[in-house]
Structures are given as C-alpha cells and as structure tokens.
Amino acid sequence: MCGIVGYVGKQKAASILIEGLKRLEYRGYDSAGIAVLQGARIDVAKKTGRVDVLAKSATRRRFTGATGIGHTRWATHGGVTDANAHPHLSSDGKFALIHNGVIENHAGMKKFLLEKGYTFASETDTEALVNLVAYHYEKEPVTDGKSRFLESVRRALMHVEGTYGIAILCTDCPGEIVAARKASPLVLGVGDQEYILASDVAALVSRTQNVVYLKDGELLHLTPANFSIITQDEEDVSPVVDRITWNIADAELGGYRCFMEKEIFEQPAALENAMRGRFAEDGSTALFGGLNLTPAELRQIGHLVFLGCGTAWHACLVAEHLIERFARVPVEVDYASEFRYRNTPLDRDTLFFVMSQSGETIDTLGALREARRKGFKVLAINNTVGSSIARESDGGIYQHVGPEIGVASTKAFTSQLLIAALVALHIARMRDMSFNDGVEYVKAVKSAPALVHRVLEQAPRIREIAKRHAHYKDMLFLGRLSLFPIALEGALKLKEISYIHAEGYPAAEMKHGPIALVSPECPAVFFAPKGEIFNKLVSSIQEIKARHGKTIVITTEGCELPPGVADELILLPDCHEAVLPIVATIPVQLLSYYIALERGCDVDKPRNLAKSVTVE
Ligand code: F6R
User: Fold this and answer.
1) 355, 329 in Cβ contact below 8 A?
2) Mind telling me the catalytic residues?
3) pLDDT tens digits, residue range 117-158?
4) What is the pLDDT of residue 57?
5) Is there a single domain that holds both residue 222 and residue 340?
6) Fewer C-beta within 10 Å: the chain N or C terminus?
7) Phi, psi dihedral angles at 181 (to 5 degrees)
8) Residue from 605, 613, 615 to probe ligand 1 pocket by mutation (most atoms less than 8 Å from CB)
9) Cα atoms in the 13 Å half-sphere on the side-chain side of 457
10) Which CATH number goes with the domain that contains 520?
11) Gap from CA of 420 to ligand 1 centroid (Å)
12) 416 in ligand 1 pocket by Cβ < 6 Å?
C-alpha cells in the first residue's frame, strides 16, 4: 500500500530509486514519482501509471544528483492524477516528501496553512504535511547544534493524527534525508558508502543485506557520512543492524511469466522451508522455537482466537477446523478489522494468534494491539522478519517462504495452512493425541510438498479447463468442513485476479438460498474429497446438475462419482486430513490463474488492489 524508497550515496540516485520502485510496485501502481536533490534544487518527475512510464519520462530528464526519494502510489486521498502523485513539494519548493499512510487530520492542517499563505497543488493529505514541515522550518530557531531539518520534521509530526512512513528532502541540506514512521513500515539498508531506505527489503536486497528496521515513533536522519535515529521525544536510539536472509533471486522472476505463477509453482519448496526444523526427534510432534510459552502454559489454554484479513482469514478458518478436530480446543476466528472495534467478551484463559503474511496489515496490527492492551498474549504467524506484527507480538512462528510479491497470496497461504496443521499437532500431543497418531500425522505433514507437486503436474489439464471457463461472468465455489475455507479462497483468488464475480459457500448451505443462482451460466467448483460425508457431497452436486448447472468437481483419486455428475474433473492424491486443505488449494489457484491469463489480466497487479494493506 504505497511503496517508498530513498537513496543517499555516491551513485546517481534516479536509476537506483527507479529499480527500487519496480520491486515495490506490488504495493501500489496508480502512479510513481521521484525527487532528486540537484545542487540547491529539487527536481521531480511523477506520472500516473506504472513505474515503467515514469522510467521512460525520467530517462529523458537529466537526473545527476546522488540523493533522492521515490514513491509508488495506491491512491487514498485524491484521484489518480499526475498532480496527486508523490513526491509532493512544499509551496516554497524547499522540501519534497513521500508518504505511505493516511494523515487523518489533514483538513484542519490545510486550513491552518492556507491562512498562513501556503499554497496547494494536489488533493492529497500528504501535501498538508510537507507544508507543515516547511512552516516549522521557517518558524523554529536553530538551537543546541541540532539539525534544523530534523527538528522541523519532528515538530510537524507532533501535530499529525494518522499513520505514516515518510521520507523528506530539503534543498538546504544536500546529501540528507529525514524519514519517520508510525504504523507504516520503513527499513534502512546500510550499504557500502550508501544508504537505501525502503518500505520493505525487496527494494534494497540487490544492494545490501544489512538492515535496520525503524520502529513506530522513530525518526531517521541520513547524511552522506552517517545515520542516526531519535524518538519523537528526542531520545537517541542505538540502532540494531540485522542481516536479512532473502537474496535477490527471491525477488526476481527466474523465467516465470509473473510472480503469481512463480509463487504457485515454488510451493513444494516453500512448504519444505516452512516445516524445516519443526519436528521433534521422536517424530511424533511439532516444535516451535518462538512461542515463548511453557508446555504447562500451553496446556492451560482454554480458548484460542485466530485473527487475520482476506486470505489470511481463510487460513485462520482452516486452523480452527484442524485445532478443534485434533487438539480439541475451542477456537474462535474473527476478521481482525471487526475484532478491533467489537469489544468481544473473552475468557481469561484465551490465547490469541494473528495471521499475516506481510506483518504490516493495519487491521491485524490494530487487533493485535487491542488484544494485548486487554492483557492477552498474542502469537503471530507471519512471513516477514522484522515486521511490525512480528515485533509487537509476544512470540510466534515465521513462515519462512521468502518474499511473496504477487498481489494474490499463494505460497504464503499454503504455508499458513501448514503451520496451522503443526500448531494443531503441537497442542494435540500435549493433550489427547497418542504417540502413534502423532507419528502418522507428522508423516502426513512431511508428505505435503510431494503431494502438492503431484497436483501441480496437472497444470496443463487445469489450463484446458480454464480455457473453457474464462468467459463466464459468475462462478460458485463450494466445499464443506476444512474445504469450506478453501472454497472461499478459490472464490477470492478468482475475483481478485480475473474480475469474475465468484462466491464461496458451504456446500450444504446451497439449498438455503444460493441454489437460486445455479444455471448453465454459473459454473460451480465443487470440492468432494474422500471422507465420511462424500455421499452427501455427491448429493449436493446432483442438486446442481438437476438444475442444469455446470460442475468442476475436485475429488480424491479412486473416488467413484455417478455418471454425468462432473462436467470437469480434477483429482487430488489421497491424503491425511491435516494436509487436505493444502493439497486442495492448488487446483483453485491454478484455475484462477489460468482463467485470468485467458482474459488478459495483469495477475501480479490486479486493479484497485495492493499488497500489504497499511490503511484502514
Ligand atoms: C488475497 C490477499 C489478501 C491478504 C490480506 C492480508 O490474495 O493477499 O487478502 O491475505 O490483505 O494480508 P497479510 O497476510 O499480509 O496480513
């Protein structure tokens, strides 16, 4: 949700900023822009559209400066226009600012600044902030050898309500950037005689693997020779330099058509990474290093609450199913965005889990804070080391699947399902699950990568099915028990990348309403795996066929379906219940992906979306 990047060093900043923006483009692609300090002037290039459009216009300009900032926008305040694109200049031209977040009190700020004679060229909330910095710069005396630039940003931010990750240039301060964050991520790359600042490590991993994660309320001051961090209350912060394990290949396509395709096909390896080192030596349970709970504490848990958004919320629903089924602990699942304002009554023996790939989703972060404020422990299942959610939780489990760049979540989702299966096992083995059942369960989880690989081998067949279904306007996804969340996920994948209207529904609920939608024009993707309710699932499919509905049936190898029930058939390898949701996800990912390709959609950058939703 908006990507920001900054550079201070010895190279020409413009090309480094543009390369960084290309890697951050998944965070927003309404417009892009850069500002470069050139002597005592700030030169700006900004354009609606993709970073490539900006790159073309920037190469026609002579950007020679070695200090600059860049932004790729997901519009919140103000339409998608060149004027609303970042960077924004203060009306005196002294400051340029890029911003990820929302300044909630921008209207009052703007009114105040208009009265003081400042002028505005855009409809954005950001322009109020850059002018407020200029106002404080003019107003503040320089004291105690402090940086006047840093001090005016600090004072301006004291008046801001809302969220921000910002980076600012000042014409009086060549070679300097001031940056700050509150609820929007910022990471500093410490390179060889250079610093790169970005919303996430994808933008800087090609130049350095040494990083400093900024915390909420911190301000960073970059100069050509050094950097320093202070808090909003002017306390010095001793920076901790971390080393990131992602490398540049993780952030590149490597021969795939797009990141979504790459991330679908790398799921066997991603699942291996997510489970590596997480099994006990006796082969009967899972181990986690970061839960920060003793076995006795875990045994005393009476209730679990899982919170997440979107795809991660679907993973929470699977966690609910697996934990209740195997560990026999009651689980509540809530949308993080609802939980944070609902004030749900909670038992004292409740443990929270939040699920978030990015670790920056503002609703999930807000829910985490709310649960912790009430005194509950919150653990995070998260893919991004150093993210806000990772830092603010009481402990947790990293997904370890590398950066997920495609906007539609794929490998992060299946790894969340895998970790949910391991959490269920871990708790189950502390309660009633036998050693032998634990061993069988562990074997099943270990087989997940190979099973996923077998489903991926059906990609050419699924592509053919996709070709026959790409023209529909509506689709249903139906499943029961642990595959109901996978039906929801299938519908979400299809609508977000192909713009086909799709609904996920519990299969048996069809007859209570949605069956009215069934027609030859609305195909139904139906999960009917082997199991106790297989015959009931077949009956539900027959209800659809009786109404001339078209069906794509996803069932288990060896299951016999009555003739004529499946217009299209996709087979899953027979597997343990713990891994069934993972295996069953693959066909709906592939189906959605190939349908979107057939329709000519830009699957990595679906319209109106952005990865990592850092606004409410
Ligand atoms: C859909 C998708 C989103 C995210 C949601 C939460 O494909 O990716 O629904 O799952 O925005 O994101 P995280 O997991 O980063 O909190």
Assistant:
1) no
2) 2, 611
3) 999 999 999 999 999 999 999 987 767 778 999 999 999 999
4) 84
5) no
6) C
7) -140, 150
8) 613
9) 9
10) 3.40.50.10490
11) 16
12) no
